[in-house]
Amino acid sequence: MQLYGVLLMATKPSNASLNLDRFLPYRLNRLAHNVSVSLATIYTDAFGISRSQWRVMALLGQHQWLTAKQICAMTYMDKVKVSRAVNGLVALNYLQTTQDATDKRAVLLTQSMEGKKLFEAMVPKVQAWEESFLEKLSAQEIIHLATIIDKLDPSNDN
Known about the structure:
- By secondary structure, the protein is mostly helical.
- The protein is built from 6 helices and 5 strands; from the N terminus they run E-E-H-H-E-H-H-E-E-H-H.
- It has helices spanning 24-46, 51-62, 68-75, 79-91, 113-133, 139-152; strands spanning 2-3, 6-7, 66-67, 95-99, 107-111.
- The strands form 2 sheets. Strands 3-5-4 form a 3-stranded antiparallel β-sheet. Strands 1-2 form a two-stranded antiparallel ribbon.
- Strand 1 and strand 2 (6-7) form a beta hairpin.
- The protein is globular and about 55 Å long.
- It starts with a strand and ends in a 6-residue tail after the last helix.
């Protein structure tokens, strides 16, 4: 059929439909975003550091020494974002840098004494946030949630 010189194709209605409110990737992304935004109020408002800086501080709180490359791999952040976070934390005197003795191109990062104090002040607050966030779930549901996340997280595949 032609209408005003344009050929119109007969189109069948698509049987494909997608309810985003029930689509797992969408729901997980939305949940992750909301969790991240809510948690960010703790370290941005109370401590003045960004989400990227928090991730760097949290990793260095768990691992004493890391390179920026290792942080990129562990956080899935790109090099630019990690570099900006690290440079900001160094400028705030929360991180120290040391040349890697085995690889002269790499710089090892660690929390400074000020950074350790900051991290020690943040940990109880983020743990309290997590506890409050999980209050909606029973102890058994929390265990199930952790098990499910472990099963679905591809980085846990060995």
